[in-house]
Every structure is written in C-alpha cells, then in structure tokens.
Design goal:
The chain has 247 residues and is an alpha/beta fold. It has two domains: 164 residues, Rossmann fold, CATH 3.40.50; 49 residues, no CATH class. Helix 2 links the parallel strand 1 and strand 2. The longest helix is centred in the middle third of the chain and has 17 residues.
C-alpha cells in the first residue's frame, strides 16, 4: 500500500474517534503562565490531565490550570495517565528539573513522572523560559553572565533531548503540539483508538505482540506474519484480523 493511502486511512481513523490525551507536569515556575494556558485552552481536541510538584502551588495560580485540566494525585493514576497520554508537557522547566532529568534523578512526583515517560518512550515537550540563559528574561536579569554555568545548562539540554524531552520556546508550543498529529506515519507505528495498521512490504515481516497490544482490530497485508506470542494475544483478547488490505 502506498504511503499516501496509508496516511488517508490514518487521518480518517483519527478524525472519527475521541480526544487525544496529554499530561501536564507543573513544576516550580510560572514564566509566561497566562500565555501558556491560553494556548492550551484553545486545544479543545485534547483531554488534559495534570500533576503538580510540591512547590508549584506557592508559585502558580492553580485555578488557571484547573480550568483546562483534571488533577491527578494518586501515584498509580499518574503512571496510568502517562501510559494513556499521547504526549507530556512541562510548561515551566526549571534549572532544577532540567538538571535532575539529565542526571536521571527522580525524587519528586514531577521528576518521577518525567523519567517514567521517557522510559516509556513518550514524547515530552518542555518550555525553556525558566532555565534558558539566552531567554529575554534571563538576559534582562543578567543571569547569562557566567559562561561556564551556561555551558553546563546547555549540556543538560542536549542530554534530555537525547533522552526524548524537547525544550522549546513558548512561540513554538502550538506548532509543536499540532505537528504531533500532522506528522504521523504508519510504518509499523502504533495507531491510537484500538486499531493497528501494518504497512505492506515486498518482504515478509513479523508482527510482534508489542505491535498490536491494546488493539481491538488489526489490518494485515498479505506479506505479514504473526509471532507465536502475537497469535496467543489475538486469541486471548479476541482481536479481529482483516487480511490483505487492498490498495
């Protein structure tokens, strides 16, 4: 099946199903909070949940986030929310949180949640205004004078991006969220809403249990083969198989 037709099928599937889901992680910062919440409030097609760090309630007006997201407290619910989320947002990535994530430290709800998300391979978007020495606020406050310190912060940025957390400016936030859905492909990629589509190929490919876990239906092309574990999962969960998806 050619790439264009696969993309059309995915677009149709995504448009017919429920809202996407994102988890917001509130840390001890508040830079551009009004602007950030205004951007998120416009995303009516996304169901937001949030967790807050121990210090965030002293810094930010939680009522603003309560207007757009549902609070998650229980640690088991937090892990469940991460698993179900399409992506995570860290709107106020502080120097403290940046360094802890880069070093693999998980000593708060916020840092633990970020580490769990990264280990699960989830996309994590963070805003850089609270840590970036090159931001307009940092320059205004002369927090960019120590070049050695700046170098350390940017080395942490490189490390967290290697781990899967992207740090962006506020004016890129809306675009970044939109591109999460625009740039979906279907090369053995998981498709949400309980349907898996596997691309056609001139060579045989094995479909594993991991490719189809959580799905109610799977489209297989004529060249695909299922592993034994995948077959057992299909029988156990009554997954519907549709063979030979036509061009």
């Amino acid at each position: 099946m050619d790439e264009y037709k696969i993309k059309k099928i995915i677009e149709k599937i995504l448009s017919e199903h429920s809202k996407k889901k994102a988890l917001i992680i509130i840390t001890g910062g508040n830079m551009y909070s009004n602007e950030i919440f205004e951007i998120l409030e416009k995303k009516k097609d996304i169901k937001f949940e949030y967790i807050e760090s121990e210090n965030s309630t002293k810094i930010i007006d939680i009522e603003k986030i309560d207007n757009i997201a549902t609070k998650i407290d229980n640690i088991e619910k937090i892990e469940e929310s991460i698993q179900e989320s399409d992506f995570l947002i860290v709107p106020f990535l502080t120097r403290n949180t940046l360094s802890k994530v880069a070093l693999g430290i998980a000593d708060t709800k916020a840092t633990t949640s970020i580490q769990l998300a990264l280990m699960m391979g989830k996309k994590v978007i963070s805003l850089d205004a609270s840590w970036n020495p090159e931001s307009e606020v940092a320059k205004l406050k002369k927090l960019n004078v120590n070049q050695a310190y700046n170098k350390m912060l940017f080395s942490y940025k490189e490390k967290v991006e290697e781990l899967g957390m992207k740090s962006i400016a506020i004016y890129d936030l809306e675009k970044e969220i939109d591109e999460i859905y625009i740039n979906r492909t279907c090369s053995k990629e998981e498709v949400k809403n309980n349907i898996a589509i596997v691309e056609d190929s001139s060579q045989s490919q094995y479909i594993t249990c991991e490719d189809i876990v959580g799905k109610d239906k799977i489209y297989l092309s004529k060249n695909q083969k299922l592993t034994d574990l995948a077959k057992e999962y299909i029988l156990d969960k009554n997954v519907k198989i549709i063979d030979n998806l036509k061009k």
